[in-house]
Amino acid sequence: MKLVVGLGNPGPKYEKTRHNVGFEALDRIAANSGVTPKAKFNGNVIELGVGGEKTILLYPHTFMNNSGTSVRAALDFFKVPCESVLVVCDDFNLPIGTLRFRSGGSSGGQKGLSDILRKLGTDEVPRLRIGIGPLPQGRDVSSFVLGKFAPQERAEIDFTLDRATRAIADWIAHDLKYCMNQYN
């Protein structure tokens, strides 16, 4: 069993913002499944099969900075080890369009990821970072990540989200090392 966590903020106000690319990646995976999300673990959950593997898609609705509450509850319920969890999140330190798999390490300033690592008690949680940057000089981080993409950036991020969807499917079917070699 695999648990894929897409990070974002709930509600129409945050749709299509830079901070919600994790939600958008999961939306693309679930798009043709016909499965209705269930409210569970302070978020929405979609259970489906990806490449023959039971996969849980988790959208925490605790807002970004408290994502760990939802992830901890799902992890405890499904008894999934951390190496079978993939956190999909934005990263303003990476150029727009970049995908970066990592097996662990610091949160890199991503507050949702930071909360997950704190609540799980480890920094050894696989993650897929989706580049949304760079942060323009003199721009406030919060307004940048909560802002929407410019039209030319939207085209780039849509292409990147298609790649991220394939990358997540590859992580489910193969492993992290395979994905690091293919996408980093």
From TrEMBL:
InterPro entries: Pept_tRNA_hydro, Pept_tRNA_hydro_CS, Pept_tRNA_hydro_sf. GO terms for cellular component: cytoplasm. One of its GO terms (biological process) is protein quality control for misfolded or incompletely synthesized proteins. Pfam families: Pept_tRNA_hydro (PF01195). It catalyses: an N-acyl-L-alpha-aminoacyl-tRNA + H2O = an N-acyl-L-amino acid + a tRNA + H(+). It is an enzyme of class 3 (hydrolase). It is found in: Cytoplasm. The active site is at H19 (proton acceptor). Its EC number is 3.1.1.29. Gene3D superfamilies: Peptidyl-tRNA hydrolase. NCBIfam families: pth. This is Peptidyl-tRNA hydrolase. It comes from Blastopirellula sediminis. The gene is pth.
